[in-house]
Every structure is written in structure tokens, then in C-alpha cells.
Amino acid sequence: MSEMSWTLIKFGLVLVGLLQVVPIMLWVERRGSALMQNRLGPNRIGPLGLFHAICDTVKFIFKEDPIPSHVDRFYYLLAPIVCVIPAFMTFAVIPFASSITIDGQVINFQVADLNVGILYIFAIASLGVYGIMMAGWASNNKYALLGSVRSSAQMISYEISMALSIVGILMIYSSVKLGDIARLQGETLVQLGSVAIPKWGIFVQPLGLIIFTTAAFAETNRLPFDLPEGESEIVAGYHLEYGSMKFALFMMAEYLNMTVASAVISTLFFGGWQLLPGMQFALDALAFDGMNREWARIAFEVMSFTIKVAFFMWVFVWVRWTLPRFRYDQLMSLGWKGMLPLSLLNIVITAGLIALGVI
Amino acid sequence: MDHFQQSLNKTMDLRIEKDPDDLWDDSKVIINIGPTHPAMHGAFRCMAKLNGEVIESSYSEFGYTHRAKEKLGENRTYHQFVVYTDRLNYCSALINNVGYSMAVEKLMGVELPTRCVWIRMMASEIARVADHLICIGISAVDLGAFSFFLYGFHQREEAYTLIEKLCGARLTTSYTRVGGLMHDAPDGWEKEVKAWAIKTRSVIDEMDKLLTDNKIWRIRTEGVATFNKEQCLAYSYTGPSARAAGVNIDLRRDQPYMYYRNVEFDVPTAQNGDSFDRYIVRIEEIKQSLNILIQCAEKIQKGPIWSEDKRVRIPDKDVVYNTMEGMIHHFKFFMTGFDVPQGEAYTQVEGGNGEMGFYIVSKGGPRAHRMRIRGPSFWHYQGFDPMIKGKLIGDLVAALGSINVIAGEMDR
Fold it and tell me: Which residues in chain A are closer than 8 Å to B217, comparing Cβ atoms?
């Protein structure tokens, strides 16, 4: 098969996979929050309430879709699209498995192995805020405007620390290509007896991980940083005037951003598709050979990556239902006075360690 | 023409005095928070003039749930009005029932049997716990901590189950009667209350662990919506909101009504009068109320629940169904009501939010001549504007959640 057709297959897989994430996450969020709050959660339709998300989708599609008369129609309609498309696009550079060689042709399990890699993610993810800004402005509603102003201020503040927090990673692995970063994390950092500690980002960049995760929460507008929506303060924030499928698109964008954030955290700090401890034994125990073994390896890698991403998605849910919300000025001061200096400090420390030859 | 216009404008300017509550300013955004806003628990609104996120000035308005309760009190018999007291502070309806019945009993000089008073006291304390649970829960929801709210809400539902066992209703109880109660508490009710109190104590500890020392919760509430002792006194604050600012008042201790003299409890106070203090005072008060409940459960005895005063005693059903005199008595009692002697009476009870007062003037006859209800939220809401001036929108939510304004008792 040509390279083009492989790309198309990968593209299709990622798109379908991402579309499935949204209803699954809806279910996880509902049942997960119920689990934490001594409730049952939705349990009427399907086993364990799994099909509620399907009903939701049907409801969203068939609901009446009114456009308020006071909105700016063009931007009002454009905003949800501008929000949701970058969310899909960012996943393109994330490697979800290593590569396989078929008939001398190397296939990377990554839609596009761009040479700008992680920078592409930052570039595209930033576009999402235009959608929010447009929604707030076009809605012609004070609450919506407040929400979108909050959102853009938040995005700008946290994007800086987010980008700076991974500079350490880039310095250590000397690459911005996510495929390279994931591959290099397979190396051994320290050998403690029979246990080899891999060179995962979490072991070489713990501070970077904390800053990046915090900033990722802010980027995805989740509690404790959900000020753009801030239900009790500004009602629903930027999507206040949106109903039916247009609202669903905003919600989809939020969950997709969460997925991408989890995937980036896994790739940068937790070895991406690198096998989880114990998986290598399982793979050896299966005793495939030849091409089968290669495919089994790929399957395990995809599984490993999925488990990591799922874990971070759960962290997102977990944090959301535990913590209260920041106030606007506190959020800003945390971003500028707390996280920005810390991420700069992280760069200096990392540079020092590299110069000393520790890492 | 221009000259004419100018002189006209000038005269207009002279004639129209500027309303101090008018927020209009061309360069600022005025935002209507309420009457249907998620943070406004009940229907009232706050118009805020915003400079960015900062509230420069605000004007709070209420009356959306005004039902002319006090006037209704003058057109209903004394028994019929019990139902209306449920709808004052609907989070702790039993306290209102008790307070109102006490006022009429004071006017008539009715003596109550001990069991009746103990049950009323226990009912009041259960209602107080439920009220405080919902207050701290809702203020946490407003700041984004949803799980905390549901932990408390579960215990509140359990409390309502206990109340349901008393009177068959969960929210609008109408439990008390002048000179007695609707029903006696069922057998073993005290034990259930005690078990519930012990369980609730552990839940409160759990909630305390979850939220009180949470960093975000602290920075969101500490130093926010501060209302100091002087302001509290100037604005007639009572209840937990006043105690949070160091005003050491509690009617249960200062003017012991019912049998509060016979139980031991502390009155928790704090110093700063900010949102966090109001929260922590309520948490402590729940613990104290649970102590009172456990003591009550041990002290309560079997016995009659009705006063033997012929004027207010509702005839028993077997008398009503089996004797002619009983039936006529019952009919007259409910159709025309009972006569209350001339005079006036004011009773105050420690409600969920503060001093809940009932003032009744009687000129004889089965209806009150004048009725006045003092709902603490009315006074608390007056302090809302100074409380949020110069603060952010997020603080407005924290302030309103912590003073627990209940539209029912504010608008009446």
C-alpha cells in the first residue's frame, strides 16, 4: 500500500477514536462523579447507563436550534466550529504506537510526524480560544462576554508557562518531534538492581510535569480553572446563548481538549507508547514470532498509550469533582507570579543538570 | 434653538435630583445578577456596576417572592396561619412553626406539657442542622465544590426523613399547633434521632476534612465579604453571621426559651466576620446542635403532648366521632377558630439564620389584629451591598452563599 493510503487509514482511526472519546468521557464523568458523591448516577438506559450518551446525542441533534435575534449571526455560527476543529487537529502529531516495517516500508503510528512536533500542538491549541472569544462577542450578552474575556486572559497567561514548562523536556531529548521524544523515553535512566527506571519525563522533569499539568487544566477550562464557564458566577459563560448541537460542539471541544492534554502529558512525561511495567513479560509470554510478534507489540503499545491517556482523563474528572474554583485575580496571580517563575527556574535547573552531565 | 435647548437642559438638571441608587454610567457595564441567576438562591437581584470584574457599586433589590404573609396573618385564624409560617425560611420550617406557636401561646398564657416542648426543641435542632447543612453546601457549590454539597445533602435528606416521621411532610411541615403538636413522635423516634446525630457528626468531620483546609477554599473565603462587629451591630445582624464577626449572641443561651436551660452547649464565635468565619461557625453550630439533640434524646420522657387548656385543645377524634358535643366543638374550633384575649406578644427564637421573631397584636377574636414577622435574612441582605463593594464577581457569590439569604423569610 502506498504511504498515502496508510495515512488515510491512520487519519480515519484517529478521527473515529476521538469521536468515541466524547460519549465515553460523558459517561465516565457522570458515573465517576456519582461514585465520588455516594450517588448512582445515570443508570436507566443500557447497562450501567452506558447509552445515556447516545440519547444525549440524539437529543442534541433533534432539538430546536434557535438563534437569538440579538446575536451577530456569522460569528455566532462560526464560533463552535472554530472551537471544535483545532481540538481534532491537535491529535495529528501524537504518536500512539511506535513503528512497524512492512515490506521494507516503515509505518509510524502517528497521523503526521511533523518536524515542528510539539510546537504544532501549541500553535493549533491556541486557536481554540478564538472560538471562545468569538462566541462571547457574537452572543452580545454581558455574561458571555465576561466569560470569553476571562477565557482569553486565562489562555494567554497559562500558555506561556505551559510552553516554558516543556522546554526542559525539549532540552533533554533534543527534539521537538513527539515521535522522537516518545522513543527516547525508552532508554534507561538508572539501573536499580534488576529494576530499570526508564528515562520518562516524570523522572527527569518532575517540576515540569506539575507545571504542565496545572497549565493543561487551565487550558482546557476545567475546574479549578473553569472560570470561563463559572456556572454560579457568570451562568454559563461564553456558551450561554448556545443551544442544541452548537452547545454540544463546545462540549465536544472541551472533552477533546482534555483528551489531547492527557495524550500530551502521557507522551511527554510518561513514555507515550512505551510499554507499562509488566507488559513486556506478557508480550514475551505470548511467544509470537515474525510479523505476528510485531503486530502484537503494536497492539500492546496502543493499549499502553490508551491506559495512560485514560488515567489522565480520570484525573481530570477526579480533580473537577474535588476542588473549588479559583477567583479571577487569584488565577492570574497564580499564573504570572507562581507558575511562570517556576517554569523559568525549571529551565535553569535542567540546563545546569545537562551541563553537569547528570541527565 | 440651541440656546433654548441648553436652558431647557439646565432647568431639567436642576429639577431632577440624582438618585443615589442610580447606577447608570455610560462608561461602565451594568450587569443584572438575578432574579434568575444560579447564585441567587431564591428570587432577588443585584444590579452591579462593573469595572472589568470589579463591582464598583451595586444596588440590591428584593420582593420578588413577597406574598403579604403578615397581612394574611390578619385574615386567617391562628391555626390557619401555621401553614404560612412554613414558607418563611423553608430550609428550617420547624423553627418557624415553633416560634409562631410560642407567640400565640404567650398571648393566651397556655402552659405546655414537657414532652411537647422536648419534641419541639428536638425538631428545631434537626431543622437547624438541615438549614446549616444546606447553607454551607450551597455556598460550596457556588465556589465550585460540588461533592462537598452532596455529602451534606445526604444527611439533610436523612433529617427530613426524621421530620417526615413526625408530621408526614418533609419540607413544609406545619407541625406545631397552638397548645400542642400535630402528632406525637412515633415510638423509638428519639433513638433514631440519636443514631442520626452520631452519623451526622462523622459526616461533618468528613466534610470538614475535605474542604476546611483546602487551599483554594481558604483563599476564596478568607478575607472575602468581611462584615465586622460594628457593621454587624449597625445592620442588626443576628445568628451565625453576627457570631462570625464576634457578636456573642444566641437567643438559646441569652433568653432561654423552651428547655434550652437544661441542655449544655457552646456558642461558637469567630472574629473576622468573613465568608470563611461564617462557614466555620456554621460547621461548629451543627456539631453543637447534634450535641443538644443527643442530650434531648436522653432527657425526653413519655407523656401527653397537648395542653389541657380547653381554649386551644383540639378534641380527640374518638370524641369528635362519637359525641355530639365533641363534634360541635371540633366544627366550631376549625370553622371560626379560637378566641385570643386582647394584648400583644413578641417571641423570638434562634432560627437558622438568626433571630426569628413573631409579633402579634390581638384585639380579641379568632384573628390577629396585627402581625409582624422578623426574618433575619431581611436584615442580612441590607448589608450585602457594602459587603461586596469593590470586590470581584466571584466574591459576590461567596458573600451571598455565606450569609444564606432565604427569599422566603426576607420577602415574607
Answer: 324
B142 CB neighbours in chain A (<8 A) are: 232-233
Instruction: Say how many domains are in chain A.
Output: 1
Separation between Cα atoms, residue B386 and residue B81, nearest integer Å? 35
Which helix or strand (DSSP H or E) is residue B33 part of? strand B29-33
Q: Give domain status of residue A228, yes or no.
A: yes
Residues of B in contact with A146 (CB under 8 A): 31, 53, 393
Chain B hits for A234, Cβ within 8 Å: 393
In a domain, A177, yes or no: yes
Question: How many other CB atoms are found less than 10 A from the CB of residue A57?
Answer: 15
A283: in domain: yes
CA of A216, closest CA in chain B: separation in Å?
18
Closest partner residue to A324 (CB to CB) among B31, B39, B217 is B217
Segments making up each domain of chain B, as ranges:
3-61, 112-307+381-409
CB A321 within 8 A of CB A38: no
Fold of B112-307+381-409: Cytochrome-c3 Hydrogenase; chain B (1.10.645)
User: Quick check: A233 contacting B, CB < 8 Å?
Assistant: yes
CB contact under 8 A, A146 and B393: yes
Tell me, yes or no, if A326 comes closer than 8 A to chain B by beta carbon.
yes
H helix or E strand, kind and range, residue B340: none
Q: What is the residue whose three cell numbers read 396573618?
A: B73
Domain interval for residue A104:
66-355
Contact B219 A36 (CB under 8 A): no
HSE-CB at A68 with a 13 A cutoff on CA atoms is 16
- Spell out the per-residue pLDDT of chain B, length 412, in tens: 567 667 666 655 555 566 666 777 667 788 888 788 887 877 888 888 888 788 888 888 888 888 888 888 888 888 889 899 888 888 888 999 999 999 998 888 888 899 999 999 999 999 999 999 998 988 888 888 888 888 888 889 999 999 999 888 888 888 888 888 888 888 888 899 999 999 999 999 988 888 888 888 888 888 888 888 888 899 889 889 899 998 888 888 888 888 888 888 888 988 888 889 999 999 999 999 999 999 988 888 888 888 888 888 888 888 889 999 889 988 988 888 888 889 888 998 988 888 888 999 998 888 888 889 988 988 888 888 888 888 888 888 888 888 888 888 888 8
Residue B18: alpha-carbon gap to chain centroid: 36
Alpha carbons A111 and A202: distance in angstroms, whole number: 25
Please, which residues have CB within 8 angstroms of residue B366's CB and are 6 or more apart in sequence? B77, B78, B336, B337, B338, B339, B340
Q: Which residues of chain B lie closer than 8 angstroms to A140, CB-CB?
A: none
Look up the ipTM and state it.
Answer: 0.81
